[in-house]
Amino acid sequence: MRTALSVSLPLLGALLLASGASAQAPAPPPAPTNSTATAIPGVVAAGTTVEFIKAGFTGTEGPIGLPDGHLIFTETQANRITRIDRDSGATSTFLENTNGSNGLGFDQQGRLISVQTTPGAARIGIIYPAAAMTTLTDSYQGKPYGRPNDLVVSRNGHVYFSEPGPNATPGQPPPTPALPPAVYFLPKDGAPVQIATGIERPNGIMLSPDEKTLYVNNTSGEFMIAFDVAPNGSTSNRRNFAKYASVTRNDAGQVNSGADGLAVDAEGRIYCAAIGGVQVFSPKGEHLGTIPVSLQPQNIAFAGADKKTLFIVGRGTAFRVRVLTPGFAGRAK
Predict the structure, then answer these.
(1) DSSP strand pairing (182-186 vs 317-322)
(2) From the first residue on, what is the mean pLDDT of each consecutive set of 10 residues in the chain (333 residues)?
(3) CATH of the domain at 261
(4) Is residue 21 included in any domain, yes or no?
(5) pTM for the model
(6) Is residue 123 included in any domain, yes or no?
(7) Closest CA to 112 of 61, 66, 69
(8) Which of 13, 57, 173, 249 has the fewest Cβ atoms within 10 angstroms?
């Protein structure tokens, strides 16, 4: 008995250690797959497939439709903009050496404006075509931007963009940015104006079809925020616009909505990439339903020949789903 016990105790310890190590190992992310939508009136028909296109991208952000219906999006870490064919879903490189571009927008001259995030060279600027490349703004009141995130370009050339603050690095204290998390208004041919601070993590940003309302996602809040927009582009009447359909809280009580990119359809509905999939809201802020996605999405855009395909990107993957109402046609996004 004594010999058997002396042999089994080390073995038992090894088994316990192995079991503990296994318990500590993080679960792998789910594999991206197709999913099936339930009906959202005017948005998506019951049983519509949310189609998985491809995985393996290096950062997936900034999707926007091209005039021919194809889609481009940014692979921020790869310093590249990638194109998805509107019909086949095949991918190809659209642009290299993008200075860490994230959010994208087109102006009325067809120039591609991007949020550029390379440390020490963060800026908002025209990145395509090459002959038009220029910096529109790289600082506010003499202080450099840290990591701006998303933008939307109005029909008269004004730019609105968000700066959520630096990304967290596991095991390291967060850096102290020169500027706080904020939302900015960049008038055409003017200097940037800081229109909002005090939003925990401003992220996706979008204008309503009539451009009288500006929407801003708060990744660390319970509510999407809205502003009234005046004819000169200035904003007022900041308010909680829509409550996200689902949020999580950590042990410290900090909120995570996962709210990231935004898009609008021709009827003024607001589509929000967030926890659970693509949450859809009415122009009054009512939650209408959520389009399920097998991986949590980061950003969205309408494209296709009829602009009735919603492309969804995030976590290195791309998806698409056919919808009932086209995206707003008055802007690229």
Answers:
(1) unpaired
(2) 44 45 61 97 98 96 97 97 98 98 97 96 97 97 96 97 80 76 96 97 98 98 98 97 96 95 98 98 98 97 98 98 98 95
(3) 2.120.10.30
(4) no
(5) 0.90
(6) yes
(7) 66
(8) 173
